[in-house]
Amino acid sequence: MDNLPVDWTTLNKLSGTELKHATFKAIQEASYFVQSASVDEPHLLEAVPRLAELIDLHSDELGSFRSLLSSLARSTGLWNYIDTDYADIDDAFVAEAVTAPELGGITFHREQIIALNSLLAGQNLILSAPTSFGKSLLVDALLATDRYRRIAVVLPTIALLDEFRRRFQSRFADKFNVVMHQSEASTEEPTIFLGTQERLIHRKDLGQLDLTVVDEFYKLDPARQDERSVTLNAAVYRLLKRSKQFFFLGPNIDKVSISNDARWEFRFLKTRFSTVAVDTLDLQHIENKRERLIDEIGEAANWPALVFVSSPDKANKLAIELSERMAVSEDASGFANWLKENIGANNFLSKSVEFGFGVHHGRIPRAIAARMVRLFDQQELPVLLCTSTLIEGVNTAAKTVMIFDKEINNENYDFFTFANIRGRAGRLGKHHVGHVIVFNDTPAHSELEVSPTMFGDDDELPDEYIIHIDKPDRSQRSDIRFRHYQAELGLEGDDLKLASSIGLETAIALKAEVARSLSRSDALVWSGWPRWPNIKELSEVLCMHKNVGGFGAYSAIQLTTLINKLRGSHTLKSFLLKQDETYQGRPEGRDNVFKFLRACEYGLPQHFAVMELFVKQLSEGADYSLFVGSISSWFKPEVLKELDEEGIPIQVSEQFYIDGDTKLSLKRRLASLCELNDSRLTGFEQNWLSDAL
C-alpha cells in the first residue's frame, strides 16, 4: 500500500487561500484512499488527527471544513473525531450511536466497538492495540453494562492501581465497591478488586469472578525478563480458575503462543488502529547529543515533554544539570518548598521541581511521583524526566517524547519497547499530533510473539510457577518437581508459596544459612520486637545470598542501621530529613533512601518471613510477625501507607492521624481540614489533598 500522498510538513506552513486549497486536496486524497486501504492502515488513519489539529490551529480559515473532516472520520472508523455540531445528520447519527453518556459522553471508535461486541458475546479476548487506542475505556464500558458483578483487574504498578481506582470511583461509586488494599474486605455487593499480581495472588475473598482483566499482558512472557513474571502467571492462573471470562490488553503484540493442551480458549484481536498521529525527528547523527537534548528540552514548542533515560541515576543527573542551567517554569514553587521541608533541603528533587523539571522513576515515593504526573498533565511541570516505570505505568498527556537512551537494565531495548515508549507521544483530545525525538538508532521492526508461562508446555514451566499449580493440573513430571522442593525446604501450602516468592534456590540457600547461624548463636530466635543484634543477624544472613544494593544499602550493617533508624523515628518526615542531613554520597544518589523504603514494602518482609519459617523448623520461640508486618508499612499505621498509595503523602497524613483511625475516618478528617482552610495545611497541601480525595 502506498502512503497517502500528502506532505503534512508543507501543509502546516501554508496560510490563506493556499492553505484552504491544500487542505481540501488532502481531505479529497484521504477520501480516495479509503476505498482501497485496509481498515487499520496507519497512513490513512493519521490523516484524521492531523487534519483535526490543522483545523483547530486555523479555525478562522478552515472552520468550514469541519463537516468534511467528520465525514472522513466516519469513513475511517475514527468516530470520536466526528464533530456533531458541524457534521451532517448521517455522520452525527453514527457518533451519537456509539457515545456513552454514562461514561461522560465518550465516543468510541470502530475497533473499540468490535472488541466490545466480542466481549459482550461472552468471548475471552486478548487485545493487542497501540498505546493511543483507548484500551482501558473498554473496561469502563463493560462495567457500565451491569453484566458483571465481581471483577478482578491486574495492573503492573501501584501508580496504575490508583489511576484506575480514581476513575472507577468517579464513574461507578454507586455501582461497585472498589477494593484496592488487603484491609478492605470483600462483601456480597458488586466489587472491583484492583491489585498487582503480588496482592491479588494472596486474596482469600475473591469468590466467583465474572471477569478478570489483565493489563500489559505481555509481561506474562518470561522472555520479557521481568522478574515478576512468575508471580504474574501464578496470580492470573488462580484468577482464571475462578473467573467466567477474561480480557487481556496490551500494545503492539503480533501473536500469542499457546501449548496444544491449553485449557483456556480465547479470541486474539490485533489492530494497528491509533487515534493520534506521530512525527519523528531523527537526531542520531548529531555530534553533541546531550547539548542538543538540553536545547530541545528548553523549547516551549515541545512541551509537555517526556524525556526517557535508561536509569534512575541518569534521570537524577540530568535533573541536576538542567536545574543548574535553565528554568522552564516557576509554577511548581509550592511543590518545591514542600519537598524541601518534607524530604530535605539538600535533595535535588526540590531544586529541579522549582525550575520546572519533574522526575519519575522506581525510587520516587508514590504520592510524590503521582503529584509529579499530575502537575505535568496540568503543565505546571512542562518536562518530566523518566525511566521505563513511567512509560509502562502511567497514562500521561505528553506532546513530545524525547528518547535519549536506548538501553534498559544495561541492554539495548527491542522494537517492542521502543514502540511502547514512542506510543506515549500524543493524546486524544489534547495533542492530536505527537512528536518523537530520537537520539540513537532505532531497533529494526520485528514481530513480537508473546508466550505466557501459563499457556506453555509442561516441560518449560518454571519451578516457582509449579508451586502454585493445583495438584489436578500438575503433570506427573511437574508433581515430581513440586515434591522435590516440598521435601528440600520442609514446607507445605502457603509456606511453600511464600518461599517461591523469593526464588526457590534462594530459599534453599537461606535455609542452610539460617542453620549455620543457629549453630553459632540464638540471635535469630526472638519474638515481638527485635534488638539491634537480632536485626544485624537477620541482615547478615540475608545478604550472604542477596545483593544488599537491591535493598537500598551498601552493607549489611548499613541495612541494619536504616531499619533501626526507621523503626525509631517518630515520623517518616523526621526519618527522611535526618537522612538528608547526614548523606555524604553522590548528589544523584540522594534518593537511595527511597529505594530502601520500597524494599521495606516488598522484598525485606518476604525474605525475613521465609527466614522465620526456617528458624521455627530448628528452634522454638521465634515469632517475627509483628516486626515483618510493621516493616512493610514503615513502622507506621497501615492506613497511612494505604493513603500514600492513593496520592496522600504520609508526611501530611501522619500529622493528623489519631490512634484507632480507619482509612475512612482519616480521609474525612483531612477533607474537613481542607474545607476549613486549616492553617496547619499550606495552600499547596490543601490543593494536593483535595485532588487526592
Which helices and strands occur, and which strands form pairs?
Layout: H1 8-11, H2 16-34, H3 42-45, H4 47-57, H5 59-62, H6 66-76, H7 89-97, E1 99-100, E2 106-107, H8 110-120, E3 125-128, H9 135-143, E4 150-154, H10 158-172, E5 177-179, E6 191-195, H11 197-200, E7 211-215, H12 229-241, E8 246-250, E9 255-256, E10 267-270, E11 277-282, H13 289-297, E12 305-308, H14 312-325, H15 333-342, H16 348-354, E13 357-360, H17 366-377, E14 383-386, H18 388-393, E15 400-403, E16 407-408, E17 411-412, H19 415-422, E18 433-438, E19 449-450, H20 463-466, H21 476-489, H22 493-501, H23 504-520, H24 532-543, H25 556-568, H26 572-582, H27 592-601, H28 604-618, H29 625-631, H30 638-645, H31 650-656, H32 663-675, H33 683-692
Parallel strand pairs: 3-8, 3-10, 4-6, 4-7, 5-6, 7-8, 9-19, 11-18, 12-14, 12-15, 13-14, 15-18
Antiparallel strand pairs: 1-2, 16-17
Helix pairs in contact: 2-6, 4-6, 8-9, 14-16, 15-16, 22-28, 23-28, 24-25, 28-29, 32-33
